[in-house]
Amino acid sequence: MTMLACPLLEVAGQNLIGDSPIVDRGRHKPLFPSDRTQEAGELTENTQEADRLESQHQMLNIVFDDRLFFPPVTGVRSVLDCGYGAASWAIEVAEKHPSCTVVGVDISLHMKPDDMPENFIPQLDDINHAFTFDANSFDFVHSRLVGGGINKGRWPAYLRDIKK
Fold it and tell me: By mean pLDDT, which of 2-6, 26-30, 53-57, 69-73 is the weakest?
């Protein structure tokens, strides 16, 4: 299967934008048709990667004494998780803070768990592009272990985006 860099317009010869794309603040976002099936190898790789990310999250929980926020914060109403991967951190925050809305952004939704808290909102987007969120939309922004996925020239703007 051929995968193209985001924005993902075509996978295995199938146009994912189609006639009715998702457009958010001028940016076309790919649609993943519900009838799209994954090849067995791709599904296994996604499962293995999700397991690896979950193990990594559990290890970091041990290292950080189960603290999800640095520094400790209270009264969090809205959180952004950049590059949420298998969503372990985002789901844990959503479960421990049910009155908080947790928005997770990732370039792929393939590892998104089936069972998610109602206050977790996964979004398909590429953090290598300028954020489309309004300034001060979030009380807390989580950006952990995404260094390898951010383009070198994007770093200054990325840091400005997560700060606003």
Answer: 2-6
Is the confidence at residue 142, as pLDDT, over 70? yes
Q: Are strands 10-11 and 14-15 parallel, antiparallel or unpaired?
A: antiparallel
Tokens of 23: 């457009």
Structure-token match 């985001």, residue found: 6
Enumerate the β-bridge partners of residue 81. Answer: 104, 142
Q: How far apart are CA 41 and CA 18, in angstroms?
A: 26
Poorest-pLDDT segment among 32-41, 114-123, 141-150: 32-41
Is the confidence at residue 138, as pLDDT, over 80?
yes
Residue 42's closest CA among 3, 84, 87? 3
Q: How remote is the C-alpha of 49 from its chain's centroid?
A: 14
Pull the structure tokens for residue 47.
């499962």
- Specify burial of residue 126 (Cβ count, 10 A radius: 0-12, 13-18, 19+): buried
Averaged pLDDT, 124-147 = 90
The DSSP code sequence of 19-75 is SS-EEETTEEE----TT----HHHHHHHHHHHHHHHHHHHHHHHHTTT--SSS---S
Kindly state the tokens that stand for 153. 């020239």
